[in-house]
């Protein structure tokens, strides 16, 4: 398992709670930020880092990108 920061662990937990575990159930960074209760920049950095680590997937969409968990 890849080492995660406390904020990354929180983001993964929130994605699980929001049901974002497959490509048909993506959540926006705003959804995740609201549920996390952390600053948007902090959550955005965690999302980017988790995507680079292969833990979540970013899906580019017309309005806002979506994210979902691909492995725990």
From TrEMBL:
InterPro entries attached to this UniProt entry: Tscrpt_reg_TrmB_N, WH-like_DNA-bd_sf, WH_DNA-bd_sf
Domain of life (superkingdom): Archaea
Ranges of residues in domain Transcription regulator TrmB N-terminal: 27-63
Entry coiled-coil feature ranges: none
Record protein name field: Transcriptional regulator
Pfam families in UniProt: TrmB
Gene3D superfamilies documented for this protein: Winged helix-like DNA-binding domain superfamily/Winged helix DNA-binding domain
């Amino acid at each position: 398992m890849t080492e995660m920061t406390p904020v990354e662990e929180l983001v993964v937990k929130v994605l699980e709670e929001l049901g974002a575990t497959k490509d048909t159930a993506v959540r926006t960074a705003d959804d995740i930020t609201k549920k996390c209760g952390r600053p948007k920049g902090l959550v955005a950095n965690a999302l980017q880092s988790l995507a680079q680590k292969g833990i979540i997937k970013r899906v580019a969409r017309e309005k806002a990108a979506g994210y979902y968990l691909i492995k725990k």
